[in-house]
Amino acid sequence: MSVKAKKYLGQHFLKDELIAQQIADSLTGKGYEKVLEIGPGMGVLTKYLLKKKFTTHVIEIDIESVEYLKAHYLNLTNRIISKNFLKINLAEYFGDKQVAIIGNFPYNISTQIVFKTLENRHQIPEFSGMFQKEVAKRIAEKEGSKVYGILSVLTQAFYNVEYLFTVPPNVFNPPPKVDSGVIRLTRKENFILPVNEKLFYRVVKTAFQQRRKTLRNSLKIMNLSDSLREGSIFAKRPEQLSVQEFINLTSKIEKDAV
After folding, report:
1. What is the pLDDT along the chain (258 residues), one digit of tens a residue?
2. Which of 127, 124, 120, 139 is closest to 103 using CA atoms?
3. Considering only CA atoms, which of 115, 148, 110 is closest in space to residue 131?
4. Beta-strand (E) ranges in the chain?
């Protein structure tokens, strides 16, 4: 018995054991005792996670995959969550315990998985996973690059991001049309923003929605004072700003509104 990959779920099953082991080994195990694997499929990554010291749980929306896992990984049976990761409340399953996230993520929801992780960052100290290479690079990219954007800034505000390695299409069944990339996020020690979080998100998103414009033009919609908009930072385009500069900019905008 094997599970057929379903296009509507964005499934591409990894079939290379060495790469599965490398992904499992990318978790350090520091600061947590529980791990949640998203979309385990037939468990090629799961079996290497089960050899680790931490306790592995899996979450899988595909009923066929769940049945396969129950039949082939008997010691995992009580730790299979048959739900959609994007819709669960982590605390319901893990209480206040710290839990790392890992997976070969479906391309169609990979960005949403990152945003869900950011929302739950108080509980997720480490995150390791496989994305479409283009998305992985975008998350890890620094300022000054054309692919640096909303996802880069928001992720790097709370996590240190490392691009670990590239994975070719031929190690999947069915093979995707693009390369994949594995990244690791390690939560920063001080992961609480010193500014209003909603405002920070709004500033970053508004700036990048018109990324070719200077901040003076792209942030016009925020009704900032003329004196603030005369600042030198407003002559820059969003991709020129580091994460810290976005935090500083948000702080200035906060004070401007008082």
Report:
1. 676 655 655 556 678 899 999 999 999 999 999 999 999 988 899 999 999 999 999 999 888 889 989 999 988 989 999 999 999 999 999 999 999 999 999 888 999 999 999 999 999 999 999 999 999 999 999 999 999 999 999 999 999 999 999 999 998 877 778 999 999 999 999 888 999 999 999 999 999 999 899 999 999 999 899 899 888 999 999 999 999 999 999 999 998 875
2. 127
3. 110
4. 13-14, 34-38, 55-59, 80-81, 99-104, 126-132, 159-167, 172-173, 180-187
Could you tell me the two tokens for 228?
């603030």
Distance from chain centroid for Cα 155: 7
Q: How far apart are CA 32 and CA 120, in angstroms?
A: 14
Q: Where are the alpha helices (DSSP H) in 16-140?
A: 17-25, 46-49, 63-72, 90-94, 110-119, 133-140
In the numeric block, the tokens 């964005």 are attached to 10
